[in-house]
From TrEMBL:
Molecular function GO terms recorded: DNA-binding transcription factor activity; transcription cis-regulatory region binding
Pfam name, any one: TetR_N
Record's keyword annotation contains DNA-binding: yes
PROSITE patterns: HTH_TETR_2
Alphabetical keyword list: DNA-binding, Transcription, Transcription regulation
Gene3D superfamilies xref list: Homeodomain-like, Tetracycline Repressor, domain 2
InterPro entries: Homeodomain-like_sf, HTH-type_TetR-like_transc_reg, HTH_TetR, Tet_transcr_reg_TetR-rel_C_sf, TetR_C
Keyword presence, Flavoprotein: no
SUPFAM superfamilies per record: Homeodomain-like (SSF46689), Tetracyclin repressor-like, C-terminal domain (SSF48498)
Sequence ranges assigned to domain HTH tetR-type in this UniProt record: 18-78
Name by which UniProt lists this protein: AcrR family transcriptional regulator
């Protein structure tokens, strides 16, 4: 949650409470990945985490609160985009990270389940938007660095470059349900880098 919001489970106290918080939020993600949003219950999360269900209800209020808090917690984890020294290959690394996150990474089931859950719960959708906004912001650093190297003109919108590079990957993975090949990833990175170099992502008047 942002600092302006105060939903249940949004504080980060220390000591045993902090350990219980991590246990509950990790258990929520595990349940989401293994069984999907529709099958999560507070009882299952409580049993998996070892935290009494009364505590879970009191702090998170129910399944929506749990999933929202778990996604917000995930957004806080350390992550930085790969730097290769060139915009094209930086964007390729981002596209590869997205593809791997849904197909190869240990958390791949959670990634897909979180997107599906966002269609069922506005609270989860809000948390997913915050998660993606955070990742776009962090990823945009590679574009900002490319602008400084002269690979794209001043005024280029870094986050729009990132969106353009990864959008075809998300489309294939989540909409058309097609395989994503290395050639697909190279193409989206190349097209986006070339478009950025031509000023396509400089906002108009």
């Amino acid at each position: 949650m942002s600092s302006q919001e105060s939903a249940p489970g949004s504080t980060r106290p220390g000591g045993r409470t902090a350990r219980n918080t991590v246990a509950v939020l990790q258990a929520t993600l595990d349940e989401l990945g293994e069984h999907g949003y529709g099958a999560i219950t507070v009882d299952l999360v409580a049993a998996r985490s070892g935290v009494h269900k009364a505590t879970v209800y009191r702090r998170w209020g129910g399944v929506d609160g749990l999933v929202r808090a778990a996604l917000d917690w995930s957004a806080d984890q350390d992550w930085e985009p790969t730097r290769t020294g060139a915009l094209h290959t930086d964007l390729l690394a981002l596209a590869e990270t997205v593809a791997q996150g849904f197909t190869e990474a240990p958390e791949r089931e959670v990634s897909a389940a979180a997107v599906a859950a966002a269609f069922e719960s506005e609270a989860v959708a809000g948390a997913l938007r915050r998660f993606m906004a955070d990742r776009h912001r962090r990823s945009a650093a590679v574009v900002t660095e490319a602008i400084a190297r002269g690979e794209a003109p001043e005024g280029t919108d870094p986050e729009e470059v990132v969106r353009s590079a990864v959008a075809p990957v998300y489309y294939r993975l989540l909409v058309s349900r097609e395989p994503v090949s290395p050639a697909d990833l190279r193409r989206t990175a190349r097209i986006t880098a070339d478009a950025a170099a031509e000023g396509a992502f400089v906002p108009g008047p």
